[in-house]
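Worked example

This section walks through a single chain of length 346. The input is the sequence exactly as stored; nothing has been trimmed or padded.
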Amino acid sequence: MKVCIVTVYNSENCGSYWQAFALSSYLKQSGCEVSFMRRKIKGTSHSLVFVGRQTLKWILKGKITEAKSQIQQYLTFDKLIKKFKIVEEIDDTFDLCIIGSDTLWNLEDRYFEDNRAIFFGEKSKAQKTITYAVSAANTPYDVFRKHFELLGDLKKMDAIAVRDKYTESIVEKILGKATPIVVDPTLLIEKTEYEKYCVDLKTASFLFVYYFGRIPEDLQNKIKCYADLKKLKIVVMGHGMEGDYNFDAFLPTVFVSCFSKADYVITNTFHGVMFTLIFEKQAVFNSCGKEKVKDVMNEYGLNDRDYSENVAIDLMDGDIDYDRVRVKLNENRLVAKKYINTFIGG
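Given that input, the structure is written out below as C-alpha cells.
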C-alpha cells in the first residue's frame, strides 16, 4: 500500500521528529511504502534564515558555544530529515493520506493558519484521507469558526482521530459527533527501536531536565536538593535551568539517550511525558497552561506528579506505578493500531 504522511517532519524539535519517524516506522513494518508530503521550510525552525538569525544572535551575545550548537543542531536534523522519502504532491496514485500527528491544527500559530489547506486535507487526492493523533493545541473554538471552509474539509475526511480530549471537543462542536482519541505515534513502536539510536552521553547517574521556558525557582531548588541527596548529576536539554551539563543543541539521538539512561526526569512538554512513559522513568511533570500535557496526565493517572497541581510536590514521594500505566498504555496502543490497520489492511 502506498501511503503519504502530512506532518511536521522537518521541524527542529525532537518530539516532532520522533513522531514522524515512529508513524513512518510502524507503517513500514506493516508493509506500506511510505512518503512525506514536502512541507514549506520558510517560516519554520529548520529554515536557513531562522537558523542564521539565531546563530548571529548568539555570536553578538558573545556565546560562541551556543552558536556552534545551533549550527550542529541544523546539520544533524538536516541529515536525519534527508532519510525520509519526500513527494511534492499527494496524487491519486496514493492509496492513503494520513494527516498527523502533532499540533497541525494549532490555528493560533501563523504557520499552521496560513497552510491550513494542507493540514485539513484540501491538497490530498489520495484514495482515502484520514487524520491520526492530530491536535489543535490550545486553539479556541472561535478561531475555528472564523474559517468556515474547515467544516467542508472535515466532512470530506474518510476518518478523523485526534490526540487529546480538547481537540476532540473542538471537532465535536464542528461536526456534531465524537471522534476517537488515539495515542501519539511515538507510542506505536517499542522502546527497543529508539534504543538503536542511543549514543554514549559520557556521564553516569543523572537527573534529566527537558523543559521549555524557565523552571520555577521552587522546583529548581527541589531538583538540586534531590540530585544532591541521590548523588546524581543534573543534565539539562535547553535553557530551563543551569545543570552540571547543558545540551544547548536539541539533537534527536541525544534526546532519546537522555530519556533511556536517566534516573529521574523533569519535563513540561508533551513528548517529554511520552518518552518518560516509553522508558518508564520516575518523574515530576508540569502541565501548567498546556491542555495536551494535562490531558495525557489525566489519561494515565499521573496527576499526583504534576507540579502545577501541587507546588508542594516532593520529588522523593509518589513513584509512578508502571504496572498500572503499562496496562492502560497497551489498551490504548491496541485501539490506535486497530484504527490504522482498518485503512492499511493490517
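What to look for: The longest strand covers residues 2-6.
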